[in-house]
Specification:
This protein has 155 residues and is α+β, with helices and mostly antiparallel strands. It has helices at 3-8, 12-23, 106-115, 130-142, and strands spanning 29-38, 44-48, 52-58, 60-65, 69-73, 77-80, 86-90, 94-103, 145-151. It has one domain: Jelly Rolls (Sandwich). The strands form 3 sheets. A 4-stranded antiparallel β-sheet has the order 1-8-3-6. Strands 5-4-7 form a 3-stranded antiparallel β-sheet, with no helix packed on it. The N and C termini lie far apart (43 Å).
Length: 155
């Protein structure tokens, strides 16, 4: 199957993301990660130079961007535009969602997701320690992501 035929078989959202990758110079990888989160879990406030798509499989999440707040339930999707600060929060006892974006390195992207997989203090807008914040920032920078605030901070 040719690259264009493979791209044509993708759902519309993934086709749009794949088309963005075709315009980027150098190596490009599409990272699609499915995660399960609990009520109240959040990602750090961050920004990057790639669009990031969220698709909820089960439960609900809220995506906070610098421009709007979007609640997504099972079957719904939203794209946080590149260069726009954003974070997300679990809004159900258990939610499963897919995050999709281009990545410099899939393994480095996985490292970042592991580093932010569970907040150390889900009831707080603080990092567990200054060391935790520093580790996440270093891993994020290797992925072209700038951390703007701890888990729980909103734009």
């Amino acid at each position: 199957m040719t690259a264009s035929a493979a791209q044509a078989s993708l759902p519309p959202l993934l086709r749009s993301i794949a088309a963005l990758g075709n315009a980027a110079p150098g190596a490009w990888n599409l990272a699609v990660v499915e995660r399960t989160i609990r009520l109240g879990e959040t990602s750090p406030l961050h920004v990057h130079d790639e669009d990031e798509a969220f698709q909820v499989v089960e439960g609900a999440i809220v995506v906070h961007t610098a421009e709007k707040v979007v609640r997504l339930e099972a079957g719904e999707m939203f794209v946080a535009p590149k260069s726009l600060s954003h974070t997300m929060r679990g809004e159900a006892a258990r939610s499963r969602y897919r995050a999709m974006s281009s990545a410099r390195s899939v393994s480095r992207s996985e490292d970042f997701l592991r580093a932010v997989a569970r907040p150390a203090r889900a009831d707080s807008s603080e990092w567990a320690s200054p060391e935790d914040a520093a580790v996440v920032r270093v891993i994020a920078e290797a992925n072209g992501i700038s951390i703007l605030g701890p888990p729980g901070a909103t734009p």
